[in-house]
Design brief:
The protein has a six-stranded antiparallel beta sheet with strand order 2-1-4-5-6-7. It is built from 28 helices and 26 strands. The protein has about 1250 residues and is an alpha+beta fold.
Length: about 1250
Amino acid sequence: MPSLISPGKILRLELENFKSYKGQQTIGPFSDFTAIIGPNGAGKSNLMDAISFVLGVRTGQLRGAQLKDLIYAYDDSEKEQRGRRAYVRLVYGLASGAELSFTRTITSAGASEYRIDGRVVNWDEYNGKLRSLGILVKARNFLVFQGDVESIASKNPKELTALLEQISGSEELKREYEDLEEKKAMAEEKSALVYQKKRTIVMERKQKKEQKEEAEKHLRLQNDLKSLKKDYFLWQLFNIEKDISKMNEDLEGEKSSREDVMLEIQQFADEINEKNKEQAKYLKEIAQRERKIADRTTRLDKSQPELLKLNEEMSRIKSKIKSCRKELDKKKAERKRHGNDIEELHKGIKDLTAKLEDLNEKSRDSSGKLPLLDSQLTEYFQIKEDAGMKTAKLRDEKEVLDRQQHADIEAQRNLEENLQQLSNREQELNEQEAQMRARLKKILDTSNEHKEELSQLKKELRAMQDKHRDARNSYESLKKKIAELENQLRELKAERYETERDAKLSQAVETLKRLFQGVHGRMTDLCRPTQKKYNFAVTVAMGRFMDAVVVDDESTGKECIKYLKEQRLPPQTFIPLQSVRVKPIIERLRTLGGTAKLIFDVIQYPFELLNKYSPKICYFCGLNIHTFDPILEKAVLYAVGNTLVCDDLAEAKVLSWSGERFKVVTVDGILLTKSGTMTGGTSGGMEARSNKWDDKKIEGLKKKKEQLESELEELGSIREMQLKESETSGRISGLEKKIQYGEIEKRSIEDKLSLLKKEKRNIKDEIGRISPELRKLKEAIDKRSKEIRELEKSINEIVDQIFEDFSRSVGVANIREYEENQLKAAQNIAEERLSLSSQLAKLKYQLEYERKRDVESRITKLETSISSLENELKQVQKKETDFKSATEKASDEIDQLKKEVAEWKSKSEECEKEIQELRKQNSAATTRLSKLNRQINSKEAQIEQLISEKREIVEKCELEHIELPIISDPMETESPTMGPVFDFSQLNRSHQGRRTSDRDKLEAEFKQKIDTLVSEIERTAPNLKALDQYAALQQKERDVTEEFEAARKEEKKVADAYNSVKQRRYELFVEAFSHISGNIDKIYKQLTKSNTHPLGGTAYLNLENEDDPFLHGIKYTAMPPTKRFRDMEQLSGGEKTVAALALLFSIHSYRPSPFFILDEVDAALDNLNVAKVAGFIRSKSCEGARSNQDGDEGTGFQSIVISLKDSFYDKAEALVGVYRDSERSCSKTLTFDLTKYRES
């Protein structure tokens, strides 16, 4: 056989304890085409595993979980032995003829040890040596295990790509390719981010440049504004200093006037204090007596329930005494009956004793014998003895029966007596039960009646309590309201000061209303402010129209004026509703905000006018606004117009003099007109006029007080309610006690009934027990009587027969009957004696029972109880008497105290009148003082306000960093205020010399200039930080540019590395694919061609993506001869196997290994295809490999094939037979050279 062109081949295999191969075995030599044959389970696949093991295949692919599983073991116990080892040595023959041995050992520790020619090496060196020989362990280009063919046939495109990557070696670059791809993506992303950052900074720099220019312009305008504000603020401070000096002079004069008024008020105050002390003394006395009255009334009220309880207690005790007396009478009658019963028993015993003695005497008298002669007597005894002897046995039997009969009769009599006693007792118990049930029914009925009455009384009590509580609450509430109204009236009267002229005017208006139809009244009567704080503001706003009289038309007004002239009354202003012209309300003034409101909206009708004119109430802007009657609305609107009211002067100035001008009045009476004038301060007349708004309020309060007092009278007497409530409580308490006593008696009766029921049950049980026993005893007595009668008959017959001759001789018909008559008489006497004895014993027993029965103790107990109850009744009656006397005494004391209270109240009222007079005088002085105080306070407030304005201006300058000129030595000037003294010499002289009337004009000029600059500054909208930010952004732009360049360089570097690896991976993959796809069709044709199909089939590989083929799939298509194109899944098993083998042989042809080991690849093939595959392998392995060699198909190779088909292995050069050694329980091999028998 010519040698192979291949570089070498496997010569032999040496094994020791590997899998089923025990001990040391040498398998081989292996020819160019060797077939391994043997029965199933002999160890063929283990031989292939041995070759795979020594060539470095992983344990998991060798059908073992760990290396120790590959060591031979006879059984499980041998597996547990220590020190077990195994090895496989492959001897490889090189083309030069030299041999190279590869050894892989499983050590005792379960690890792998690698050797080359006996030298221990590591895995990398071992694998490198195999790679140098064309053996790729990772790609497994030399092995085809069982099932690999089917696996390859069923691989999808992606799996074929993975297989091709292993064969080509491009898989080794996969990790590096993926890492570089990830780095490339990160570098590109980083570069993009830096570019975006650079672009953003460039745009931001351009924007900041514009902002920088805007900021520079803004700063220039700010400096101009600061200079203008400095002049403005200095001018304001100059005017403030001037105003403060003038006001201080006015203030000193008003303070002097105030001191005089204060001295006058102090004198009135001293006199009032003295009177108050005197009145306090009277009130103290009144309070002490009222406390005493309240205390005694309370005690009196508390005693009423107690008195009712005592009455109930007396009623209960009397009822109990009556009940006890009734029971005592019953017990005494029972005691009398008891004595009579004992006497009757004594008499009965005496009679029975006498009867018993008479019976005994009679028995002795009638005990005579039959008169016989001596001879007859002897014969009689002789015959009687004979008769006795003859009837002895029968007589003995009769005697026994008689004794038993007598005992049973006695027992029967006892049972009958017991049964009678039980029946009597049962009847007695039934009677007692009936009585108790009647009593219980009566108690339950009474208790239900009491409960119903109690429920009704409780409802009444609750109603009384609710009514009393409501009345008390209403009483307290009304008292409190009346007190509040009195306080309000006192306050209003104290503040009210009505002049004689005002009184005349009021009287005149009332007269006009009465005389002329169409007169509505004065404005002060028709409306009033919603809150007291607006009184002064409304007064100022209305001005002269406040006292104007509202009339329907001009004619009514003229008639009124004529009447006033005739009566020489003060003149009045009249507002005719028909002809007066008013301007409508400007609605937007209601939405100005702040504290600003229309004066019209803070005016409302009093309640009595609301009822008269029926206005509608609505809510607007949070105010409670009364929509006036259209007629009266005109008058109010005419008086106040669209005048505004606000809380402070600053807000009023803004409203009146800023932009559109309005007439504004503050709550303290400062009026600002549209023309720019401001009127302030107060006068006595103005103060008095503002108080007129309260006149109608006082009248309303008086009417309300009268109404509340009438409601208080309607409530009735609280004390009477308390008395009724106490009486009902007492009745409830009595009923509750009755119900309680009834419940106790009910429980007692129920307990007794339970005991009676138990006793009756026991009696019934006893009767039930005795009755059967008695019945049984009667039956036994009757039966025994019959037996006795039969015995007597037998005895009598014998005796009669024996005494027959003797009876005849003595002249007696029958001697036995004669004796029996005598005996019967004796027996009758005996029975009568027994009956009398029994009755006597019974009477004695009954007498003994009656004597022992205790009758006296219950009577004694009842008498004691009655005595105790009578004592208790006396005590309760005594308490009642004490309570009644205490109540009468308390009532007398209350009446006396009420008289004293009336006297002290009279004195207090006189004192109150004097105090009121003094207070009236004091009120007038106080009004003057308050007027002066308000004027002083107003001046001081104005000064304080001016100082505050000055301070605000200074603070505003500090906040805005405006430096005002200050005099270094303030002593040189006389400044009216504390603080820094400003140098007004720097102020423009034209500004200093201006008149007060020109201030507004000059201030408007200042404000206009400031507003112009401010609006221009506001339009600039600068970013002052842009000056510094612009330089920073320029530096930042330079840094980002450098960073961007570095990122681009890094990106290019990574991209170059990535492209290089990608190109190498592509070249390796495409090189392998090109070779395999070029050979697969030729190999498939060789495997499928036949005489009938000389061209064979067609097979080819297609890439799904030619740019990145290793990332996508490879489509493998095989078309057997005479068949059209089909998917691999639709081919038959044999067709798939042939296609898979074609692919395997094509893959092997690329970088072929020197040998090819196949395990049962022919399993799914028929004989024809087996022969084709065997022929192909032979052509590659044997002599034909040289002549058929093609550069594209590669060199030949050594083939080691495991097969069970003779049509396959008969074409091999050598056979290795594997068999099972049953004696040693291991696998053995035989080698057979077939070249000697090959046909030439």
